[in-house]
Every structure is written in structure tokens, then in C-alpha cells.
């Protein structure tokens, strides 16, 4: 073709339109996706926004709703190898897992009268632990809370023989679960052999499941933190302790919900702890957002990005516009039907909302109250809780300890001293 042929410009223009422009758009899209993938989680903190986020639209089928739920749990899949409803968009897995979880709860306490047997197991487990208290590794508050919670959950929900639950093994498993959870958000590399080591114990204790951690995580992991927080708040609260002591003698539903004269019910005490310190502070959903929002809807649907939205339950449950200026103050009586507003009731979302709400939302506060009551019965008698500067969550319990009352010495001492303490020289 001759160098100054006019067709040449047309060909160049074509080349430009059909190759350079699409490549540029593709690069912009890729860059935007990369940039957005670095974007932190988007926080959602008002009641209407949280309700909207946790309620799958009618147009969305169950698989889509489960996908939105599972994507943010990818770090837990990597850390723990979970295969339950928290990790997949498969509606069959969801159905089977929720059914099994409900069945575990109802076989643990088939009838209201069976809360008595639950209370007995809880008290026996605590007493057994207190008897073993001279061992050096049992001094810190989180070990105390984790090991007792795990033992009770294992015996009650998974029918584990208590004699199989050696302290060293339960401590290894519960400490390991904490380590994996803490690391899961920041890395994909974990201590070699740790998960395998945890699974060896879990499979020995709970052989009825092919992957027992699927059941251990939703049951034990939230419960131990509720127990720890409850102990931290209540161990010096004389009135609540008396209410819980009475409840331990008669742990039925009616007693759980009844307000004794002028004072808080056990249910309201647990609600208030769950309000101020919800074990699940954020509930996450992956959602599709238009990437180029200036485009009209038919076009914009081709340019979307997946982001994670976090329903900030921890914030909502302390929101001063809902709970008043004393929102941070522990006051169980605020849940009394005469005081609690409709808005406040709707803002209690520690167990989630809508179709994926926790199956244990009624069971867990009742069970936790019995466990806390059984522990508090021995606090002051045999052990004392020493406070640290602040109440923690999964971590952050620096300074908190449990010390033996009789020996007036901490559990963290040599076995020799412990021997002396338990067999004092006359
Ligand atoms: C204090 C204790 C507990 C708290 C705070 C808690 C919290 C939650 C929350 C917030 C969700 C919803 C997650 C989401 O929407 O993404 C959930 C779901 C679930 N929880 Fe719990 N939970 C507790 C105890 C338990 C226990 C003891 C069980 C035992 C069976 C359990 C079984 C489940 C199951 C199976 C689901 C999934 C429900 C579904 O996908 O349909 N939880 N939990």
C-alpha cells in the first residue's frame, strides 16, 4: 500500500478502535478490581442497614445467600479445613448441618426437666477442674475458661466420656484453635502439624463425625468467650451471683426467665452480657457492587466487584441513640419488658438475623448461665479471679488470673510448692 494512501488512516483508526480501546478498558477494569480487592471491609452499623444486609432478597435463591455467607469465611476454611454450612454454598450441606446441629441440642436437653442433669454435669466438671488446680499450667484465666467450657460442651453435646478429656490434651486443642483463629485473618501459613494434632484428639473424642471440628467450632468457640466475659463481669456482683446460685438449684426455663422481686432475671443478665460483649461482633456477607456506577444499569451489571460488608453488631448493641447515654453500663434491668423498647429488642442481633440465624439462640444463653453459675459457686470458696486492666475477647486478657484461695498462691508455681500447699507440713 502506498504510504500516503487515505485508506491507511482508516485502517489505523480501525486498529485503534478495535484493539487499543478494548485493551485499555480491560486494563482499567483489572486495575479497578485489583484496587478494590485491597479495599478494607465496608462497615454497616445502623439497624435498617444491618437487617437489609442479613435478609437475603426474595429474588436471591438459597445458593446465592449461602455463597454470600461462605466467601468471608474463606480464612476459616484455610485455617481449620471446615466443610460445614459456614464454608459452602451447597443448600444440601446447609440443610443437613443445621438439622444435625438442632438434633445435637435437643438430645443434650430433650425436656425442660433435663436442665437439672445439665447443671449436674456442669458442677461436676468444674469440681473436677478445681481438684486438679495444683498443676502449674492452669493459672491463666483464659485456660480456665476455655478448658472448662470445652469439657462441658464435649460431655453434654457430643457425649464424650469425661475421663478421656485429659487437661493437657484439652488445653492443647483449645489453645491451638485460638492460635489458628487469630492467625486466620492475617496469614495462610500456620504452625506445621497444629491442625493435624488438634484433629487427632477431636477424632478420638468425637468419632461420630468425619470432621469433628465442623461441630466443635460453632458450639465451643463462641461459648468459651461468653463464659469468660460473664465471669469477668459477674464475679464481684453480689446480687447477680445470688440470682445465679438460686438458678443453679432450679435451672428450668421458668426460673431462667422470671424476674425475682426488684431484681434482674437470669435471662436478662445473660442478655446484657451478650449485648455489651457479643462473642460475634461482626457478621459478614460478600455482596456484588457495580464497579462503574456512572453506567446505566443494563451495562453496569457487566462491571461488578465482590466486596465484603460487615454488620457491626458490637456497635449496634451499644449505640447510644438506641440504648441511651448509659449504653456502655452493665444494667440487666434494661431488658425488663416494662423498660425495653421495641427498637432495643430488634437491635439485639448477637445470634444473627433472618434465615441464617443461629440455631442455638435460645439454648446457648440458658446453657451458658448454668455453666457460669456452676463456676461462680466455687469462686470465693476455692479460687479467686484476679482482674487485668480490660475485658478481652478471643485475646486481650493480659493480667487476668485465677488463684487458689486456700493456698493464697497462684496456680502458676512449681509442682513442689503445690504439693506443699495441698499437704501442708504440720
Ligand atoms: C454464645 C453462643 C453463640 C453465639 C453468639 C452464636 C452466634 C451465631 C451467629 C451470629 C450466627 C449467624 C452467622 C451468620 O449469619 O453468618 C450463628 C449461626 C449458627 N450457629 Fe451459633 N452461636 C452460638 C452458639 C451456638 C451453638 C451452641 C451452636 C450449636 C449447635 C450453634 C450453631 C450454629 C449454627 C449451626 C449456625 C448456622 C445456621 C445456619 O446457617 O442456618 N451456635 N451463630
Which secondary structure elements does this structure contain, and how are they paired or packed?
Blueprint: H1 7-37, E1 42-44, H2 47-54, H3 62-70, H4 74-80, H5 91-108, H6 115-131, H7 141-158, H8 167-184, H9 194-205, H10 213-234, H11 238-249, H12 253-257, H13 266-276, E2 282-290, H14 297-300, E3 304-312, H15 313-316, H16 320-323, H17 342-346, H18 363-376, E4 383-386, E5 401-404, E6 409-410, H19 415-422
Parallel strand pairs: 1-3
Antiparallel strand pairs: 2-3, 4-5, 5-6
Helix pairs in contact: 4-8, 6-7, 6-18, 7-8, 7-10, 8-9, 10-18, 11-18, 13-18
Protoporphyrin IX containing FE (HEM) binds at residues 69, 85, 94, 98, 101, 104-105, 218-219, 222-223, 226, 279-280, 283, 350-352, 356, 358-360, 364.
Commentary on this structure:
With 426 residues, this protein is mainly α. The chain folds into two domains: 1-38; 54-270 and 329-339 and 357-422, Orthogonal Bundle (Cytochrome p450), CATH 1.10.630. It contains 19 helices and six strands. The protein has helices at 7-37, 47-54, 62-70, 74-80, 91-108, 115-131, 141-158, 167-184, 194-205, 213-234, 238-249, 253-257, 266-276, 297-300, 313-316, 320-323, 342-346, 363-376, 415-422; strands at 42-44, 282-290, 304-312, 383-386, 401-404, 409-410. A three-stranded mixed beta sheet has the order 1-3-2, with helices on both faces. Strand 5 and strand 6 form a beta hairpin. Helix 7 packs across helix 8, helix 7 (141-158) packs across helix 10 (213-234) and helix 10 (213-234) crosses helix 18 (363-376). The protein starts with 6 loop residues before the first helix and ends with a helix. The structure holds protoporphyrin IX containing FE. Residues 69, 85, 94, 98, 101, 104-105, 218-219, 222-223, 226, 279-280, 283, 350-352, 356, 358-360, 364 line the site of protoporphyrin IX containing FE.
Amino acid at each position: 500500500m502506498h504510504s500516503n494512501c487515505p485508506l491507511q488512516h482508516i485502517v489505523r483508526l480501525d486498529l485503534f478502535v478495535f484493539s487499543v480501546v478494548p485493551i485499555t478498558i480491560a486494563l482499567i477494569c483489572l486495575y479497578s478490581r485489583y484496587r478494590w480487592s485491597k479495599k478494607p471491609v465496608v462497615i454497616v452499623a445502623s439497624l435498617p442497614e444491618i437487617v437489609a444486609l442479613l435478609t437475603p432478597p426474595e429474588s436471591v435463591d438459597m445458593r446465592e445467600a449461602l455463597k454470600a455467607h461462605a466467601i468471608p469465611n474463606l480464612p476459616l476454611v484455610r485455617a481449620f479445613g471446615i466443610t460445614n454450612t459456614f464454608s459452602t454454598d451447597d443448600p444440601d450441606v446447609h440443610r443437613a448441618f443445621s438439622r444435625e446441629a438442632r438434633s445435637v441440642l435437643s438430645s443434650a436437653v430433650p425436656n425442660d426437666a433435663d436442665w437439672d442433669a445439665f447443671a449436674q454435669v456442669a458442677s461436676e466438671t468444674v469440681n473436677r477442674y478445681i481438684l486438679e488446680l495444683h498443676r502449674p499450667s492452669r493459672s491463666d484465666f483464659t485456660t480456665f475458661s476455655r478448658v472448662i467450657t470445652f469439657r462441658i460442651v464435649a460431655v453434654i453435646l457430643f457425649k464424650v466420656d469425661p475421663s478421656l478429656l485429659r487437661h493437657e490434651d484439652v488445653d492443647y486443642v483449645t489453645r491451638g484453635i485460638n492460635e489458628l483463629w487469630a492467625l486466620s485473618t492475617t496469614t495462610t501459613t500456620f504452625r506445621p502439624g497444629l491442625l493435624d494434632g488438634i484433629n487427632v484428639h477431636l477424632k478420638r473424642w468425637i468419632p461420630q463425625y468425619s470432621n469433628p471440628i465442623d461441630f466443635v467450632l460453632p458450639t465451643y468457640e463462641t461459648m468459651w468467650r461468653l463464659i469468660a466475659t460473664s465471669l469477668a463481669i459477674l464475679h464481684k456482683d453480689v446480687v447477680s451471683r445470688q440470682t445465679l446460685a438460686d438458678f443453679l438449684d432450679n435451672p428450668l426455663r421458668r426460673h431462667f426467665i422470671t424476674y425475682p422481686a426488684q431484681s434482674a432475671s437470669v435471662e436478662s443478665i445473660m442478655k446484657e452480657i451478650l449485648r455489651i460483649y457479643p462473642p460475634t461482633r461482626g457478621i459478614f456477607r460478600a455482596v456484588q457492587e457495580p464497579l462503574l456506577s456512572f453506567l446505566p444499569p443494563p451495562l453496569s451489571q457487566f462491571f461488578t466487584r465482590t466486596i465484603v460488608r460487615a454488620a457491626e453488631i458490637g456497635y449496634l448493641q451499644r449505640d447510644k441513640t438506641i440504648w441511651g447515654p448509659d449504653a456502655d453500663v452493665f444494667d440487666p434491668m434494661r431488658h425488663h419488658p416494662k423498660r425495653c423498647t421495641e427498637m432495643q429488642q430488634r437491635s439485639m442481633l448477637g445470634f444473627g438475623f433472618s434465615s441464617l440465624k443461629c440455631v442455638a439462640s435460645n439454648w446457648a444463653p440458658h446453657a451458658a448461665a448454668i455453666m457460669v453459675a456452676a463456676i461462680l459457686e466455687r469462686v470465693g470458696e476455692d479460687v479467686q479471679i484476679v482482674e487485668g486492666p480490660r475485658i478481652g475477647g478471643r485475646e486481650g486478657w493480659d493480667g487476668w488470673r485465677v488463684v487458689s484461695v486456700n493456698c493464697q498462691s497462684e496456680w502458676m508455681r512449681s509442682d513442689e510448692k503445690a504439693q506443699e500447699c495441698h499437704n501442708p507440713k504440720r
